Amino acid sequence: MAREQLSEVSYGWNGFADRQDLATALAGEIADRLTRAVSERGTALLAVSGGTTPAKLFAALSTAPIAWDRVTVTLVDERFVPPSSPRSNAGLVAANLLQNKAAAARFAPLYHEAASIEDAAAADSEALRSLPWPLDVVILGMGGDGHTASFFPDAGNLEELLDPASQRIVLPVHAASGGEPRLTLSMARIVAAGFVALHIEGEDKRTAFNGAMGPGAKKPIRSVLEAAPRRIEVFWAP
Ligand SMILES: O=C(O)[C@H](O)[C@@H](O)[C@H](O)[C@H](O)COP(=O)(O)O
């Protein structure tokens, strides 16, 4: 894993010839780390992102021969929609990851029907408190604007979202660029993970990532890289 050192931020760069090679390699890395967590602490906690990128990865990971019945899967973030919605990350995970061998995993959703996104976030923080924190593996995505999770640059509460000291587990997000209101794991919970991978695909995303690593206004993805106590590994394919 090549190392890029930039001013005060570093990350591992793992480039692949094509998206299926990336999915196979990253699924193997995740499976190894989940297996190690189960052997060390009897359980493992995985958080994945939604969007259009992860489907191949989810399909590859779903067939991994690991002790899925000891694994809890949750989401890095979620749109404030029910699982039946085509916009639902829970629906995406159910259809693509919690299949095959991974169907035996426990799933902890972020979306709960509530009067407001604020009420849902508060309910989430209570419901998720009993999960076996810290996360063992987090898979992040990134938008062309440098957002990751639901840390959108135009979020009204971006400072709170990026606060590595926040004790909250789940935070509400209102950001026009994010579409529906969102629920997102807090920065603190994400960066405390044993392994964080950033999964991006396509030239535009590589350009956006490199831009976020350069001078200029700090993008949320850079804030996450800087806050992470362990080097984050970037997985990219054209
Ligand atoms: O709910 C979401 O949309 C994701 O959690 C979000 O953070 C995603 O990772 C990026 O927006 C990239 O999305 P694409 O994979 O669709 O480009």
UniProtKB/TrEMBL annotation:
Please provide the Gene Ontology terms (biological process) for this protein.
carbohydrate metabolic process; pentose-phosphate shunt
What EC designation does it have?
3.1.1.31
Its keywords, alphabetically, are: Hydrolase
Pathway listed for it?
Answer: Carbohydrate degradation; pentose phosphate pathway; D-ribulose 5-phosphate from D-glucose 6-phosphate (oxidative stage): step 2/3
Q: Which reaction does it catalyse?
A: 6-phospho-D-glucono-1,5-lactone + H2O = 6-phospho-D-gluconate + H(+)
Q: Which domain of life is it from?
A: Bacteria
Q: Which GO terms describe its molecular function?
A: 6-phosphogluconolactonase activity
Entries under Gene3D superfamilies matching the protein? 3.40.50.1360
**Which InterPro entries does its entry note?**
6-phosphogluconolactonase_DevB, 6PGL, Glc/Gal-6P_isomerase, NagB/RpiA_transferase-like
* Glucosamine/galactosamine-6-phosphate isomerase domain segment(s): 18-225
Give the matching CDD domains: 6PGL
UniProt keyword Cytoplasm, yes or no: no
Q: In which family does this protein belong, per the annotation?
A: Belongs to the glucosamine/galactosamine-6-phosphate isomerase family. 6-phosphogluconolactonase subfamily.
Alphabetized PANTHER family for the sequence = 6-PHOSPHOGLUCONOLACTONASE
Protein's job: Hydrolysis of 6-phosphogluconolactone to 6-phosphogluconate.
**By what name is this protein known?**
6-phosphogluconolactonase
Provide the organism lineage as a comma list: Bacteria, Pseudomonadati, Pseudomonadota, Alphaproteobacteria, Hyphomicrobiales
